[in-house]
Specification:
flat, 13 helices, mainly alpha
């Protein structure tokens, strides 16, 4: 699911920024390869923990896939990602490979540390730059767009762990969300989504229009709920689904942000 969401976001950003279809196809293909390598690497490294947790949604954990096959596939996808990324331009390719490196660093090490949020912030924050640098003029996106994307990615990190938070802790995963607990993760995800929304709304003009009031109100309500809601409600899927909806709205704002797309070649 995260890989599909990042790929979709890359495709929408490519259209919003006005990439020619051929350039957009190369950029999206690079993102697909990078996300597959990260996802398969994660599944291979988490094999023991997923089996202990009885994860039926993981082919490796159920025995439907062989560990050696998944490991080889992860390395092959990474090798394919390198030329696909560089085909978008040297600078754009370097930025995207940095995003992929952040994902691998998360899997191999940072996932279990207090810096678990950092790869998400870097990868999401640099995704708009990868797309804009693919344009013929190679422009960097505005700073506020990079900041908003990084905040959205960090929010997604806190939200993404909620369904498996207790299993992660039992399996020895001690990233920042596991350290602050379920209530702290819900609050962190909501606050970060709120700030991302405000940055997206205020970035182009310096003020927040009424159009962003609904998302801001939902984020504020969820923050209050996370701080004062009953423990039983925190254990359900309600907070996760609400934050997921907020992240979707933020992603839409990221793509549709007024004045964000630089001048480029429109899709035919």
């Amino acid at each position: 699911m995260p890989a599909a969401a990042v790929t979709l976001l890359a495709a929408l950003l490519s259209a919003a920024f006005g990439l020619h279809f051929a350039s957009a196809a190369k950029a999206v293909a690079a993102v697909v390869a990078g996300q597959l390598s990260i996802g398969w690497c994660n599944d291979r490294l988490d094999l023991g923990r997923d089996r202990a947790a009885g994860r039926l949604d993981k082919p490796l954990a159920t025995g439907a896939a062989r560990p050696a096959t998944v490991g080889t596939a992860a390395c092959a996808a990474l090798l394919v990602c390198i030329p696909l990324s560089l085909a978008c331009g040297a600078l754009a390719g370097a930025v995207h490979l940095g995003c992929v490196a952040a994902g691998w660093a998360y899997n191999l090490w940072l996932k279990r540390t207090v810096l678990s949020w950092l790869p998400y912030a870097l990868a999401f924050g640099l995704l708009p730059a990868f797309v804009t640098l693919t344009l013929p003029s190679h422009p960097w996106p505005p700073l506020w767009l990079t900041v908003a994307a990084a905040l959205l990615g960090t929010s997604a990190h806190f939200a993404n762990v909620l369904p498996d938070l207790e299993d992660d802790i039992k399996g020895g995963v001690r990233g920042l969300p596991q350290r602050v607990g379920r209530r702290g993760s819900v609050a962190s995800a909501a606050i970060l989504a709120l700030v991302s929304c405000v940055v997206l709304m205020a970035g182009p003009t310096g003020r927040v229009p009424l159009a962003g009031a609904g998302v801001i109100a939902v984020a504020l309500a969820l923050c209050v709920l996370a701080a004062a809601g009953p423990p039983a409600l925190m254990r359900g899927r309600g907070p996760f689904l609400a934050i997921l909806a907020m992240a979707g709205l933020d992603a839409a704002l990221l793509v549709l942000a007024p004045g964000a797309p630089p001048t480029g070649h429109a899709w035919p």
